């Protein structure tokens, strides 16, 4: 738990092109993972870490997200009249999770630009950034360790995960030096989506960051980089050289819902572990796998 309350930013303005046509009219962050939209897992993770002021950066056609975190009196009244208190509890939970705010990104100009749009809400304070398609299993908390490292050192902290070298081209990749803590490294450089032969390591940046407010001044003057977008990785590279950046190495369960196959895996894994669904699902999975 953070002793000093901080705010969290969840960028959710991407177009979700990898999930077309499902995301033609529905934000990718609203795709259900078992029985909750992906973005709700992220908000719940923030709240569990003691963060209850959350800004979601929206793009066009993303009103479903704000609607999800709003109350729906007519639905709640109908469930109450029917005595369906369990469903009522689940419906109300999303609107009572946290103090949630929204701002539009406007033109989608990259993750760095989306983070910069949070400047007026964040002010001159440290804040967390949590990507909506990276789900961290609640049994393997990551954000509390990152917040603790930031509080201890005052530095920007990013989450890293060792990945197969064949996959480094999908991530921002860090060059690192060890510290006294085996789960914490010093980040000496970052490169966005390098070729395998150019990657400085197999430590990939995953979607959790604890950023100092200095990042806003850097993002303000950061030119478009990879893909013609303003990359957060480029700003972090400058911070690594000037102020210093730490990386917390995550070794727990993570679900990438931004990829079709990993999205399906996430649903199967999470459903299999649930007490209400697992007992019926696991035997069926074994039978299904035996037929392959």
Automatic annotation (TrEMBL):
GO terms for molecular function: UTP:glucose-1-phosphate uridylyltransferase activity. Keywords: Nucleotidyltransferase, Transferase. It is an enzyme of class 2 (transferase). CDD domains: UGPase_prokaryotic (cd02541). It catalyses: alpha-D-glucose 1-phosphate + UTP + H(+) = UDP-alpha-D-glucose + diphosphate. InterPro entries: GalU_uridylyltTrfase_bac/arc, NTP_transferase_dom, Nucleotide-diphossugar_trans. This is UTP--glucose-1-phosphate uridylyltransferase. The lineage of its organism: Bacteria, Bacillati, Actinomycetota, Actinomycetes, Micrococcales.
């Amino acid at each position: 738990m953070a002793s000093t309350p901080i705010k969290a930013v969840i960028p959710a303005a991407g177009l979700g092109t990898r999930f077309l046509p499902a995301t033609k009219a529905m934000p990718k962050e609203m795709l259900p993972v078992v029985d909750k939209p992906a973005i709700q897992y992220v908000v719940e993770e923030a709240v569990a870490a003691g963060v209850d002021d959350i800004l979601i950066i929206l793009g066009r056609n993303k009103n479903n997200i704000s609607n999800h975190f709003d109350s729906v009196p007519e639905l709640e009244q109908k469930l109450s009249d029917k005595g369906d208190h369990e469903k009522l509890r689940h419906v109300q939970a999303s609107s009572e999770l946290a103090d949630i705010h929204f701002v539009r990104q406007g033109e989608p100009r990259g993750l760095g630009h989306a983070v910069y749009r949070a400047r007026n809400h964040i002010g001159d304070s440290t804040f967390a950034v949590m990507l909506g398609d990276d789900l961290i299993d609640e049994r393997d908390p990551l954000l509390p360790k990152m917040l603790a490292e930031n509080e201890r050192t005052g530095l920007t902290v990013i989450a890293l995960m060792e990945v197969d070298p064949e996959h480094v081209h999908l991530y921002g990749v860090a060059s690192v030096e060890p510290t006294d803590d085996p789960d914490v490294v010093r980040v000496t450089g970052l490169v966005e989506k390098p070729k395998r032969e150019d990657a400085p390591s197999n430590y990939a940046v995953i979607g959790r960051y604890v950023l100092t407010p200095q990042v806003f001044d850097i993002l303000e003057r950061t030119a478009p980089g990879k893909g013609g977008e303003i990359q957060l990785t480029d700003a972090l590279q400058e911070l690594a050289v000037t102020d210093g950046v730490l990386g917390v190495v995550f070794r727990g369960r993570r679900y990438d819902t931004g990829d079709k196959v990993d999205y399906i895996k996430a649903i199967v894994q999470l459903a299999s572990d649930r007490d209400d669904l697992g007992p019926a699902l696991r035997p069926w999975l074994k039978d299904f796998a035996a037929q392959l």
